[in-house]
Amino acid sequence: MPFDPAQFRQLLGRFATGVTVITTHHNSERHGMTANAFTSVSLDPPLILVSIDKRALMHTIMMENDAFCVNLLPEHRREWSDWWAGKAPKDADQFADIPYTDGTTGSPVLEGCLGYIDCKVWERYPGGDHTLVLGEVQDAEVNTDPDIKPLLFFSSKYHKIGDQL
């Protein structure tokens, strides 16, 4: 059976993921990008990985920058996901109405998220039409509010977490 790229993309969409916003600062400007291609890599040393499309503006920035932050979005922040997924006006200040603080690396930490992971770039690897960026964790924090739930992405749609099995 021949490999079908469209079916492969559909298959990957059937894997439920959380939604993150990757943030960074570069030349005194702050930037963000929605991403669901994020995973942990190592506990010792603490490393994570994000996958950045080479066509994305964020790719150019991440190739020149040495730090980034992964912000794990809660279900009530779908609009942030849309905003940083390219639905914001091109000339808009990406952080004008978004509450944030500067993290340890200077990257924006979005307030009210499930948590964040602030990193220095450890290494970059080519990955086809993406670049895999390994980050060494400099700081991380989890939101301990027991009522906060993750924003999920499945089959090209947002979802809420359901009943525990």
Automatic annotation (TrEMBL):
<protein>
    <submittedName>
        <fullName>Flavin oxidoreductase</fullName>
    </submittedName>
</protein>
<dbReference type="InterPro" id="IPR050268">
    <property type="entry name" value="NADH-dep_flavin_reductase"/>
</dbReference>
<dbReference type="InterPro" id="IPR002563">
    <property type="entry name" value="Flavin_Rdtase-like_dom"/>
</dbReference>
<dbReference type="InterPro" id="IPR012349">
    <property type="entry name" value="Split_barrel_FMN-bd"/>
</dbReference>
<keyword id="KW-0560">Oxidoreductase</keyword>
<dbReference type="GO" id="GO:0010181">
    <property type="term" value="F:FMN binding"/>
</dbReference>
<dbReference type="GO" id="GO:0042602">
    <property type="term" value="F:riboflavin reductase (NADPH) activity"/>
</dbReference>
<dbReference type="Pfam" id="PF01613">
    <property type="entry name" value="Flavin_Reduct"/>
</dbReference>
<feature type="domain" description="Flavin reductase like">
    <location>
        <begin position="12"/>
        <end position="160"/>
    </location>
</feature>
